Amino acid sequence: MLQNPASKYRAFPPVRLADRTWPDAVITHAPVWCSVDLRDGNQALIEPMDIPRKMRMFETLVDIGFKEIEVGFPSASQVEFDFMRKLIEENRIPDDVTVQVLTQAREPLIRRTFEALAGVPRAIVHLYNATAPVMRRVVLGMSEDEIVELARSNAQLFKDIAADYPDTDWTFQYSPEMYSDTELAFSKRVIDAVTAVWQPTPEKKCIINLPTTVEHSTPNLFADMVEWTHRHVERRDSIVLSVHPHNDRGTGTATAELALMAGADRLEGCLFGNGERTGNLDVVNVALNMYTQGVNPGLDFSRIDEIRATVEHCNQLPVHPRHPYVGELVYTSFSGSHQDAIKKAFAARQEGDVWDMPYLPIDPKDLGRSYEAVIRVNSQSGKGGIAYLLESEYGLQLPRRLQIEFSQAVQREMDASGKELTAQDLWKLFQAEYRLDATRRPQYRLSGESGTVAISGEFQVHGETRSLNGEGTGPIDAFVGALSEATGRSIRVLNYAEHAVSAGANAQAAAYVELRIDDEHVVYGVGMDANIVSASISAIVSGLERAPRAKEASIA
Ligand code: KIV
Ligand code: ZN
């Protein structure tokens, strides 16, 4: 790279618009959306869509709710032409959808485009020619006047040819290609020349589309350009002002949003931002940004994973796992502090509350995603995520200090393997750590009266079956007494918790005991059983077995 990039690259010139109004604007309603997946998106594919893929994409776009769909560039290839014909001849265009097609400003291409549209009930025909200085100078070798005349004469040709098809409801669209790189005064001159020919009215508008063919500036400068154009073009009340952002600087979404604030009425883009180079505007991103601000975008992404699968199939390109709103990982937190916060916020949330969830800007359920993947455990995670997974998948409500204790065992496992642990992995580790073994159910009898309980039975401790007898104020007290005596160890119950198990773990009750053993070790024990007394007894054995054994006497 250069030490002095200014020797090769120039800064984008600011727009002189001291009285700009867009910074205070708020987006309160959805724009007119136009999908260009089947045209701009398709042109950018390694392998452009065949007709079945195009049809699948078209139907998906219709299902999502797009009312304007640029279906192709019929003069560019036979497939594009044939697809347009198929849509018309097989009557596949719903009554509330308008198809759009693109053509360069060249007579044979324009004629062929109208031919492709013969018989369509309504259509947007989109004319473009390059207007930027570099194109005028280097590529086309045309003066400003010649460019204006090119646009004007082809706009006239549109009008003339359209008159030959009076049964179609035509809308005309014009794009000064590379608007983002064209002097504002010159793009206004070309736009005004085109609308002077088309003579749109407030009742029958034309569309003027402003592409950031290549993104060159920060989005605020583009917003200034749009506001300038919005305020200066002639016949503004008869124009639908559209923008068509690309994403070369990675700011396509911001560009589109600020352009709406600056006066644009319509957005062109692709699902998940497919398109030339770094892509077209990601319309899903903008639509769902609006949704999270309480604005109905008028597009339905409630089955976003299905839409992603279709788009991946049609485009034969993957969507990145971290792609906003749709990526596989975008509703997942690995960080322990994030997990803690999410867990607490879910617990505090009441049905009908405004969505106010740390680290989750949108409710994944609104897009057909589940909460399952919200919390995943890797070496960055803490007790919150572990507890959440064990509760959501296995119905365990671990006491807080047990969460801390178990998270250390998880951390050791992570450090050894370096891998993410699934809920199932955690459950296996939990079973091993707390010796949850359904085959060693305690066999015992309880008896007693007036505040005294006697227990006698067979219990497995440290792999040996022992007969124990004891008395106490309740079954736990009686068992602790019997076990202490048999093992010669001091066992004190510091805390006890139990609950019915609602899911997954194959037992009806869970008991957790925090024990102080030999006045030295504080450990948790866990027991699970259909019977709560058996679960408690197993929890005490589990705790004892987990305590370091240095001072343990052999069982008599
Ligand atoms: O990016 C662009 O400039 C285009 C035009 C043809 C609208 O796709
Ligand atoms: Zn484009």
From TrEMBL:
One of its GO terms (molecular function) is magnesium ion binding. SMART domains: LeuA_dimer (SM00917). Its EC number is 2.3.3.13. SUPFAM superfamilies: 2-isopropylmalate synthase LeuA, allosteric (dimerisation) domain, Aldolase, post-HMGL domain-like. Its cofactor is Mg(2+). GO terms for biological process: L-leucine biosynthetic process. Gene3D superfamilies: 3.30.160.270, Aldolase class I. Pathway: Amino-acid biosynthesis; L-leucine biosynthesis; L-leucine from 3-methyl-2-oxobutanoate: step 1/4. One of its GO terms (cellular component) is cytoplasm. Pfam families: HMGL-like (PF00682), IPMS_D2 (PF22615), LeuA_dimer (PF08502). It is an enzyme of class 2 (transferase). Keywords: Acyltransferase, Amino-acid biosynthesis, Branched-chain amino acid biosynthesis, Cytoplasm, Leucine biosynthesis, Magnesium, Metal-binding, Transferase. It catalyses: 3-methyl-2-oxobutanoate + acetyl-CoA + H2O = (2S)-2-isopropylmalate + CoA + H(+). Residues 31-305 form the Pyruvate carboxyltransferase domain. It is found in: Cytoplasm. CDD domains: DRE_TIM_LeuA. The keyword Transferase applies. Mg(2+) binds at D40, H244, H246, N280. Residues 437-556 are annotated as: Regulatory domain. Catalyzes the condensation of the acetyl group of acetyl-CoA with 3-methyl-2-oxobutanoate (2-ketoisovalerate) to form 3-carboxy-3-hydroxy-4-methylpentanoate (2-isopropylmalate). Homodimer. This is 2-isopropylmalate synthase. The gene is leuA.
